[in-house]
Design a protein that fits this description.
Layout (H helix, E strand, L loop, with lengths): L6 H30 L8 H16 L5 E6 L6 H12 L3 E7 L1 H7 L7 H9 L6 E6 L5 H9 L5 E5 L13 H5 L3 E4 L7 H23 L6 H10 L9 H7 L11 E6 L6 H12 L3 E7 L1 H8 L8 H9 L6 E6 L5 H4 L1
Parallel strand pairs: 1-2, 1-4, 2-3, 4-5, 6-7, 7-8
Helix pairs in contact: 1-2, 8-9
The chain binds cytidine-5'-triphosphate.
The site of cytidine-5'-triphosphate has 17 residues, from strand 1, helix 3, strand 4 and helix 8.
Amino acid sequence: MEFDSSSSIWDGVYYHSHLFGGLMLTAALLGLSSSYFGGLGSSYLPYMLSDLGFFYKKKCEKKRIRVYMDGCFDLMHYGHANALRQAKALGDELVVGVVSDEEIVANKGPPVLSMEERLALVSGLKWVDEVIANAPYAITEKFMNSLFNEHKIDYIIHGDDPCLLPDGTDAYALAKTAGRYKQIKRTEGVSSTDIVGRILSSLKDAEACENHDNTSSLPNDDHKESQSNSSHISQFLPTSRRIVQFSNGKGPGPNARVVYIDGAFDLFHAGHVEILRSARQLGDFLLVGIHTDQIVSEHRGKGHPIMHLHERSLSVLACSYVDEVIIGAPWEVTRDMVC
Ligand code: CTP
């Protein structure tokens, strides 16, 4: 089996940098001798400098590392965003393969979101440079060679959870054998399956609530209801470091037009990406207010939101059009928010 390797390119850069250092020293010595011999050596200087320029350029043009991460990215959540953030940190350019609907059906069961929706969500993330639609679920030899040769990928990346095909084999086995595989840490406490579970649980709660309103309440009914509610509440708490990692860390410039938009942004979807893109186009800095769980629950009913405040905030912050978020914004825009 033949795999392209980029190691020679790296050897090349490394080699030139050494040579550059050597030439610098030689140039300094010749510069001295040319003045000592009354400028005899000066005619060689332009050639020398052009040579230096050549090596200097080579050194500056250090190859950019291109990394590839694929996935289903169904019901995209901050765990996916965190995976892509870590992948981007392993290179300079991140290319993301969004697995086709057919491949997901064959390997995991039907996805909730369509290819177009998943593509819009992934493309809207701040760490993503390019996307490949309809990627295969497993890294086949043909696909891997197209990644290396056409897309100039240096490394293929996946989370540290095993990714097995229906026959029990590792979906990334070939990339590992080729020595072009890297791993990132999977984010605990969230998954697409978990989110589907939360949605179902919230529907059950809403149904129970309706029945409760229609029938007379038994003494321990309230207790059962609160038990059912707590079963889908995520325990995820973001650290200040995680928020910093997701943030672009920039404030508005002196004359920036700051645009404010608020909402629940529950189960972050393609429509959210689109509205945030439009809002950002209205000004220079986009500030997004994320309503508290209590406000969302008051306006949307029991069982809402599905994702709690911190989770919703991270999903919004991961969007490339967003500059800053207010974690727990009030329902009404107050004077101090405008000034
Ligand atoms: N991932 C992660 N943390 C999570 C969920 C996913 O780091 N909580 C990573 C996976 O390891 C993978 C990428 O995100 O590298 C895309 O994952 P995906 O193919 O969408 O599916 P799953 O790994 O099954 O995750 P989920 O069930 O949440 O969709």
